[in-house]
Amino acid sequence: MTFRIHTHGRLQEWIADANGYFADAGLTDYTLGQVEVASFDASTQDDPSGAYQTYEKGRDASISCACHWTVNMAASNAHGRLWGDAYSVSPCGIFVPADSAIRTLGDLAGVTIDVGYQSGSHYATIQALETAIAPDRIKLNFAGSPDQRLARLDRGEAAASTLFGIQLYIAEQLGFRKIADTSFMIIGLVPDGVDADDVRKYYAALRRAQHDIDLHHQQYAHFYLNEVPAIYHDRINVGAFGPGERIVFETYSPAMYDKTHQWVEDRAIFDDAKIGQASYAAAALNAG
User: Fold this and answer.
1) What residue ranges in the chain does DSSP mark as E strands?
2) pLDDT digits (tens, 9 = 90+) for 63-88
3) Burial of 158 (C-beta count, 10 Å sphere; 0-12/13-18/19+)
4) What is the pTM of this model?
5) Which residues pair with 180 in a beta bridge?
6) Rounded Cα–Cα distance for residues 225 and 108 (Å)
């Protein structure tokens, strides 16, 4: 069975493919693809769609990643099993136009911030803002995918937007100003029926790619162009981008799983009917 991989807008998969690391690990029959932007529907605030909904519908991938909050909730609700042997940390921040009067987290009280629905930017924004602002002063606008949110900011249609990874680097180069760092954890979700040994091979290849990034990420920055929308190609320099998302080969533990699940429940981000209750043992998959 072909092992289907989502690239997630980061360097690791592109490097592993180009340098033959997947093949070296024994993963020879695979494809690289991307999550469909159409899956993130910003058309209505009454029925928005984001990362969690792509798992409800079923992503066409043998392994895919999203923020740990969404993957946690998806795995707890039997939409796949989270990979417990690694996680990653993605740079993320809340951005405003260069001439904005907003300077601090406190200045964002009552300000509408573009985020993705039940996606990393949604949770990360709440997590950052609640350190400085009362919950009833946090105002979010579900504005679709990272590319869609960047476009709104670029067109002057958003007072503030939470962006991560590639879109964060583009926003920096276009002159937008970061008010707060909201970096967050990402983990993988494996659908039922996928061989855990193939997932282990996949992560073995990514470990080698991570070493390459840590040593000299600029050597591989050209791969970002595979993920950057063409409309920005003549406005930015990917050679000046940072290393992006960093994979940490440590356990996403039962304690982390439980604490994260409770955090989401406490903030009523999901309807009660969507709250999964699977234990870590049932929700997680490990190499063994």
Assistant:
1) 3-6, 30-33, 64-67, 81-83, 87-90, 92-96, 112-115, 139-142, 161-164, 177-181, 184-190, 246-248, 284-285
2) 999 999 999 999 999 999 999 999 99
3) buried
4) 0.94
5) 94
6) 32
For residue 208, the one-letter residue type is R
Identity at 228, one-letter amino acid code: V
Mention every residue, 6+ apart, whose C-beta is less than 8 A from residue 23.
Answer: none
Q: Compute the 3-state secondary structure of the chain and give helix, strand, coil in percent, each to the nearest 5.
A: 40, 20, 40
- Closest by Cα among 120, 86, 16 to 256: 86
In the block, tokens 């840590």 appear at: 214
Q: Are strands 177-181 and 81-83 parallel, antiparallel or unpaired?
A: unpaired
Distances in Å between the alpha carbon of 270 and those of 52, 74, 159, 276? 10, 11, 26, 10
pLDDT, one tens digit per residue, over 32-74 is 988 765 555 555 556 788 999 999 999 999 999 999 999 999 9
Residues 215-222, mean pLDDT to the nearest whole number: 98
| CA angle at 144 for the pair 138 and 148, rounded to the nearest 5° | 110
Residue 211 makes CB contacts below 8 A (sequence gap 6+) with none
Segments of 123-276 assigned E as strands: 139-142, 161-164, 177-181, 184-190, 246-248
Handedness of CA 268, 281, 16, 32 (dihedral sign): negative
Starting at the edge strand found earlier in the chain, the sheet holding 139-142 runs 139-142, 112-115, 161-164, 92-96, 177-181
Determine contact, residues 161/144, Cβ cutoff 8 Å.
no
Pick from 274, 200, 276, 279: which is nearest to 50 by CA?
274
